[in-house]
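Internal QA ticket QA-208
Title: Verify multi-chain structure generation after dependency bump
Assignee: T.L.

Test input:
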Amino acid sequence: QSALTQPASVSGSPGQSITISCTGTSSDVGGYNYVSWYQQHPGKAPKLMIYEVSNRPSGVPDRFSGSKSGNTASLTISGLQAEDEADYYCSSYTSSSTVVFGGGTKLTVL
Amino acid sequence: EVQLVESGGGLVKPGGSLRLSCAASGFTFSSYSMNWVRQAPGKGLEWVSSISSSSSYIYYADSVKGRFTISRDNAKNSLYLQMNSLRAEDTAVYYCARDPVAGTGAFDIWGQGTMVTVSS
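Actual output:
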């Protein structure tokens, strides 16, 4: 149950686009279309932003999008806004019927 | 309002035990798989355990297997986590989370968390 690999930090200016990667194995990310992305602001509970690789829950802006290629999933945020500054986590269902999270990525809006 | 509220956290000595509770409201609790996820201070999220709607399927992270027990009482709309043989590395905020599509790991509703501190 090794954690998925995410970059520790990414940054971008307002209006720009950024992409956060999430790398796993064929036993998790690559084996299932069950990748989710969460946003977490300091001191708050995580919020589901993307599920099943590319689906957005109701209320999540369409600036947030997800994709997957092989063992790597990606979260793209377009038209960056100040309120997007937060920690982002990916997660995946695994072949052991468990869930594994990524280590998290801190997004800084410059 | 759909809501999850955790309770039961606190300070416990290494080797001790603690039972966390999660009270659900605003949705049909008995229809959903539920999970516990924890976050150590300043660290990332770690999935801990899941339980299916009827308690038929239960899974644990290797880090807690044999020490933690997840359970639920659908009549009381409540989820539990019995934590035994606690270690310093179990210190974390513990969240309960709803999984609307069992097994996908897409947790759409989270509680506010309850802090567990394991220290002598």
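Spot checks passed. The CA atoms of residues 15 and 85 of chain B lie 4 Å apart.
Status: verified.
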